[in-house]
Each structure stands twice: as structure tokens, then as C-alpha cells.
Design goal:
The chain has 292 residues and is mainly beta. It folds into two domains: 34 residues; 244 residues, TolB, C-terminal domain (Neuraminidase, 6 Propeller). 12% of the residues lie in helices and 43% in strands. The protein is built from one helix and 20 strands. A four-stranded antiparallel β-sheet has the order 1-20-19-18, with no helix packed on it. A hairpin with a 6-residue loop joins strand 12 and strand 13. The longest helix is centred in the N-terminal third of the chain and has 34 residues.
């Protein structure tokens, strides 16, 4: 009888201990759930300062060039027209035809002259593009549709055009090259001004299984104050900044919610950065971006 009573006491103590431990554990887990911070996006190292919605005709905006405050020259990848768009008035203030239908991917401006890149590497030069007496000619390059050309800019300091292929390059797969066309000769220079090593440790975060897809330029621009070269990559949602000597300075990751399909890049004269997006779920737009 005594033994049975002792056994009952032991059982009660064991049950009490188990219940106590369970309650402590449950309370501790509840506390953790209530005090955990919500997940935040710490990858954004830029600010969107302004957003300008583009009209339907520019849903497939493929290139932009800053002209003056609130005014941009735009091309889209189906129609051979330059659209001058005023972001303050929200209207196209001029529509300049330079060619028929085609896959036009970028535009750059040198004073009164415009240069438009077609995806097969052909460049349209429109001298005095705002005039009725504009003169249109073509600059040939060794590229074809296989290279998928989308990036063209004017380097004001060196008076030359810069371009780089999105896909297949003219040399080794592990090197992405930036080429020049001096405006004095208007001849393509086969010797690149910059070689970007796609296996560089500085590009580790964006490396692809196929090394040539690590960087797929969709637009390029030269910063007017620093002369750094900015390479926009729509497929990988990244922005690469290079020193004018080719050194990799920084790689920015772009958030898909901000940049649905970034295809154009340009700077104002005082160094403000603008990036255009083709329409996706939302309207096409031009974003003023401040990098941190």
C-alpha cells in the first residue's frame, strides 16, 4: 500500500514536470514569433526620385536620350521614329521619322545630331534631326542579328560612339567588349577600348552557368561628370559601373518591382541618372534614379 502511494506521487511529479516544461516551451516559442522583425528588402542601394509614365506608342521604349529638363528623345523597337517626349506636359511634342519598321534598340544625341542603333548593328546617323532638311545616312559595323545589339551612347569628351553586344561578341566568350566609332572617321574600330572579364570576382554575384550570359547589356551611357561608363543589363536586372579605363567599380542589383524591363539609360548634363522601362504589367516609364 505504501509502495503504491509512493508510485502515485512519483507519477504525479513526472506529469507536473512535463506540463511545466511544455508550457515554458510554448511560451518561449510564442514570444519569438511575436518579436521577430518582418523581412525587409536590404538589397536596394538606390532611390527612385521621380517616375514619368510614357504614352501607349512608347510601350516598347527601347532607348532614351536626355535633351533638356523634362525632355527626352525616345525610340521604340518597332517603328523608325524619334519621339520627343515632355515628361512635365506628358505629351509627345515632336515625331521624327528616320526609317521604316525595324528593330531599333537605342538612341544617343550629339548636339543637333542623332544616332540610332538597330539590333543587327546598323547605325542610323540623322544630322540636324530636328530640321526638315535633316540628312540621314548609315554607319556599318561587323555585327549581325546574332550579336543582338542594344547598347549605343555618345562619349562627348572623346567625340566617339560607344557600343557593346548583348549576346555573342567578336572574341572569347568570357570577355565582354566595348567598342568605339570615332565621329571623325565614322569607322568601326575592331580593337575594343574596354575588355570586361566575365569571370572577375567582382561579378561573382551575377555569374551564369554560361559565362557569356553573366552580362547582357541592354543600354550604355557615359556619366558627364566622372566619365564612368554605366552598363545596364535588363535580363539580369543589374547596373554595372566601370571606370573609363575599364576597371569594375560597382555592380548594382535592380529590384524587379521597380524595373520591370529596363532597356534605356541616359544622364542629364549635371549627372542625374534616368532609366526607362518597357511596359510589362504596368505602363512604360522613365525613372529618375539616385544611386547610394
Amino acid at each position: 500500500m505504501k509502495t503504491s502511494k509512493t508510485l502515485n506521487i512519483v507519477i504525479v511529479l513526472i506529469l507536473f514536470t512535463c506540463i511545466t516544461l511544455f508550457l515554458k516551451s510554448s511560451t518561449r516559442n510564442t514570444y519569438k514569433q511575436n518579436t521577430e522583425s518582418p523581412k525587409t528588402d536590404t538589397s536596394k542601394n538606390y532611390n527612385i526620385k521621380n517616375t514619368s509614365i510614357l504614352p501607349d506608342i512608347l510601350e516598347e521604349v527601347s532607348g532614351i536620350a536626355w535633351l533638356s529638363e523634362n525632355t527626352f528623345a525616345c525610340v521604340q523597337d518597332e517603328i523608325g521614329h524619334i519621339f520627343i517626349y515632355d515628361t512635365q506636359l506628358n505629351i509627345i511634342i515632336n515625331d521624327i521619322k528616320f526609317a521604316g519598321t525595324g528593330d531599333y534598340e537605342d538612341i544617343t544625341i550629339n548636339n543637333y545630331d542623332a544616332y540610332i542603333l538597330r539590333s543587327d548593328g546598323l547605325i542610323y546617323e540623322i544630322l540636324d534631326y530636328n530640321s526638315k532638311d535633316r540628312n540621314i545616312s548609315k554607319i556599318k559595323t561587323p555585327f549581325t542579328e546574332k550579336n543582338n545589339m542594344e547598347s549605343l551612347t555618345f562619349d562627348k569628351q572623346n567625340k566617339r560612339l560607344l557600343l557593346t553586344p548583348k549576346d555573342k561578341d567578336l572574341g572569347k566568350k568570357r570577355i565582354k567588349r566595348i567598342y568605339q566609332i570615332p565621329l571623325q572617321t565614322k569607322s568601326f574600330d575592331t580593337i575594343p577600348i574596354i575588355d570586361i572579364d566575365l569571370k572577375s570576382k567582382k561579378l561573382e554575384s551575377s555569374k551564369s552557368k554560361k559565362v557569356e550570359k553573366t552580362l547582357r547589356p541592354s543600354a550604355i551611357a557615359v556619366h558627364p561628370l566622372t566619365q564612368d561608363i554605366y552598363v545596364l543589363d535588363s535580363k539580369n536586372l543589374q547596373l554595372l559601373i566601370l571606370h573609363s579605363n575599364g576597371e569594375i567599380l560597382k555592380l548594382y542589383n535592380l529590384n524587379k518591382h521597380d524595373f520591370a524591363q529596363p532597356e534605356g539609360i541616359t544622364f542629364s548634363a549635371d549627372g542625374h541618372l534616368f532609366i526607362s522601362n518597357e511596359a510589362n504589367k504596368n505602363n512604360a516609364n522613365i525613372l529618375e534614379v539616385e544611386l547610394k
